[in-house]
Structure formats: C-alpha cells, structure tokens
From TrEMBL:
Cross-referenced PROSITE patterns: VOC
Domain VOC stretches: 4-130
InterPro entries found in the cross-reference section: Glyas_Bleomycin-R_OHBP_Dase, Glyas_Fos-R_dOase_dom, VOC_core
Gene3D superfamilies: 2,3-Dihydroxybiphenyl 1,2-Dioxygenase, domain 1
UniProt keyword Oxidoreductase present: yes
Residues of the signal peptide: none
Record-given protein name: Glyoxalase/bleomycin resistance protein/dioxygenase
PANTHER family documented for this protein: PTHR39434, VOC DOMAIN-CONTAINING PROTEIN
One Pfam family this sequence matches: Glyoxalase
Molecular function GO terms recorded: dioxygenase activity
Keyword list, A-Z: Dioxygenase, Oxidoreductase
Length: 139
C-alpha cells in the first residue's frame, strides 16, 4: 500500500541557504525549482521553499512541558534510531537547537523524543520519535 504523502509550502528569505539546510544538512534530495521556489524530498514528502522574505518575520511561542516552543512548525516522526542519528548529525554540524533533544513521558505508554531546530529563514521544524508507534494518537 502506498502511504499518503503530505505537501507543504513555506516561506524562505534565501533559496541558496534553503538548499544548504534542507539539501546539505538534512540530506533532502532537490526536485524541481525556479528562481522563486525549490522542491525537496523531505523524507518521502514534498516540501517547497518559496522565496518570500516578508513572510519570514515573527515567532509566536506556546508552553509545552514548561518550555516555549514555536506554535508554527512542521516536522517528522522518525524511528528512534533515525531520530538519534539526526540529532547527532545536527549537533556535529553545529546546528543550534530551539529545544534540545529530550524524552517526554519517559517510561509511560506515550514515551517520545523530540527536538526543535530552525532553518536559515527562521522556520521551526520538530523531529519526534515514539517508543511505541501505536501510541502516536493515544489519549
């Protein structure tokens, strides 16, 4: 069965920086592009960085676990080992974390790891993992 894939378009202020972050740092293959946008294969999903500098300002945060996280963000659910490997790769590259990798609900049914980073345009990305994927939507 083919899984549904999501498509997300988001603003950036520099396509070269977007290519370095998404292509170089995260390892996303580049697809089609123009002078105003570039497609990336975001772990099997299509994301499109659109050149729109005026849309890149302002960050609204909300409280989660006593930490301030960006309300507007996107990201992925990864396998635990892939999540740890990505966190290590970002650390080794000197990428700043908005929220360092940590485990929520340790030892509980919804145990999950999470971390947040920003791309060069200020867009927030969250990368998560679950010990038990059947608990992703559990209440």
């Amino acid at each position: 069965m083919t899984r549904p894939r999501f498509h997300l378009a988001f603003p950036v202020n520099d396509l070269s920086e977007a290519r370095q972050f998404y292509g170089g740092l995260l390892g996303c293959r580049e697809g089609r592009s123009s002078e105003a946008w570039v497609d990336f294969d975001f772990f099997g999903h299509q994301i499109v960085a659109h050149l729109a500098p005026d849309e890149c300002a302002g960050v609204v945060t909300g409280a989660v676990d006593g930490k301030q996280v960006p309300v507007r963000h996107f990201g992925l659910l990864l396998d635990w080992a892939d999540w740890e490997a990505l966190a290590a790769r970002l650390r080794e590259a000197g990428q700043a974390f908005i929220l360092d990798p940590y485990v929520r609900f340790a030892g509980e049914p919804g145990e999950q790891g999470t971390f947040f980073v920003r791309d060069p345009a200020g867009n927030a990305l969250e990368f998560k993992t679950f010990r038990d994927e059947s608990r992703i939507f559990a209440g």
